[in-house]
Amino acid sequence: MTAWPAELTDGDTTLRPIRLRDQRAWREANQRNREWLRPWEATIPPSLPGGPVTHRPTYRQMVRHLRAEAHAGRMLPFVIDYQGRLVGQLTVAGITWGSMCSGHIGYWIDEAVAGRGVMPTAVALAVDHCFRAVGLHRIEVCIRPENGPSLRVVEKLGFREEGLRPRYLHIDGAWRDHLVFALTTEEVPDGLLTRWRRLRPGASQK
User: Fold this and answer.
1) Phi/psi of residue 163, each to 5°?
2) 3-state SS class at 188
3) Sign of the CA dihedral 146, 149, 150, 153?
4) Is 0.85 surpassed by the pTM of this model?
5) Which of 85, 111, 132, 189 has CB 3.0 to 4.6 Å from 36, enough for a Cys bridge?
6) What count of Cα atoms within 13 Å lies in the side-chain half-sphere of residue 139?
7) How are strands ordered across the β-sheet holding 160-171?
8) Exposed, middle or buried, 47 (CB in 10 Å: 0-12/13-18/19+)?
9) What CATH number corresponds to the domain at position 111?
10) Which residues contact 79 (CB under 8 A, 6 or more apart)?
């Protein structure tokens, strides 16, 4: 299995590289879920006097940037397909090598499919790929304490809570605190997807 590009599938859930031709489906999902996503989306802080003016990139600019970061080995930019339809995005970013071998995961999901196990499956696929194919040792997820649905994802998967990072990211117009959750490869020797299959609702009947 190559580290990138990669397509990862379990049942109806697939992670695959984001593409320029995904623009219409990506925009439709993003715009339809605007109110659902707004409280948790990263925003750009106001420029300091004399500092550079920053703007939100266009879709094409975003994809080109993500591709460049992927080719440089610093990022894995996936979209999430569920039953053949684009329903979200998952990015492994901040990939660091040397003595750390770490990265962090960020994600969003269409409210219409939330609660079906799509996001825990996607995160499990990504973590296993990072540990087995990419060669990372640690993955972390940082979540606002108020973001109940996202907290349930890491709780379902058994991520370890490490503490609070005050005013960690600029989200929804202000600097927001985030809780840190992490896993290392030693904690999931059989793979995170195997753990999730064992723990998810209805697993005992399968």
Assistant:
1) 140, -170
2) coil
3) positive
4) yes
5) 111
6) 30
7) 8-10, 13-17, 76-82, 85-96, 102-109, 138-143, 174-184, 160-171
8) exposed
9) 3.40.630.30
10) 15, 16, 17, 18, 19, 22, 26, 86, 88, 89, 90
- From CA 96, how far away is CA 85, in angstroms rounded? 32
Residue 111: how many other CB atoms lie within 10 Å: 15
Which residue segment(s) compose the domain that 52 sits in? 8-205
CA 88 to centroid of chain Cα atoms: 9
- Give me 9's structure tokens: 């599938």
Helix, strand or coil for residue 81? strand
Task: Please state the domain count of the chain.
Answer: 1
State the Cα angle at 30 between 171 and 128, rounded to 5°: 75
Q: How is residue 180 written in tokens?
A: 């840190």
